[in-house]
Amino acid sequence: MTKIGIYGSAGRMGRVIATIAAEEGAVVAGGVDAGDDPAPLARAADVLVDFSAPAALEANLAAAVAAGTPIVIGTTGLNAANHALIDKASQSIAVLQTGNTSLGVTLLAVLVREAAQRLGAEWDIEIVEMHHRHKVDAPSGTATLLGDAAAAGRGTTLGEVRVDGRAGLTGARTEGTIGFSSLRGGSVVGDHQVVFAGEGERIELGHRGEDRTIFARGALKAALWLAGKPAGRYGMAEVLGI
Fold it and tell me: b vs e for 207-220, b when ≥16 Cβ sit within 10 Å of the residue's Cβ?
């Protein structure tokens, strides 16, 4: 039976993943949190799930590489340096990194990419997301994931077309850009909407997370899928076979 180690086990997602794993009959090898050494757990587990913090990523990846243990990274708020570390680690071990482990969001990203590819640049793309008041990063990792999908559909990168939070006299909208708006409040688990706005018509593709267990179930599915995979960088779409 696959043994799963959890980095960030005391956090919101870490606790839910442990609960879901127990319900599904999976074995939790243990948990690591801030100030703990990640290496022993990496050696004890067959696969790791990381929902800790960007600051912990380098040490967690180093421990996973040293032990030869695959790792699912669901930590959000990652920057270019973090992704460079993931790319390097994926040369030695299997790494699945995603801004959202929900199976529904994974399918939504595929639909967004398809829509962006088929609609012309005259269709404006805006991404609106809302999360609970305690969330510390914005836009969310899911919103960025959806933005990446939209940009890929148009044959570009998000870094080239991204516009965050407009305010003041910004001037007319630049064609081809992808805008982001972030809302925070209450106990919202996660709402995401991608708006394709054309002349006289609008398409809205969205997802609402009503229970945090959807992310835990997706993370568990991803971990079980990743265990035993060869070195490389993977995504949630591959878990669903799309």
Answer: bebeebbbbbbbbb
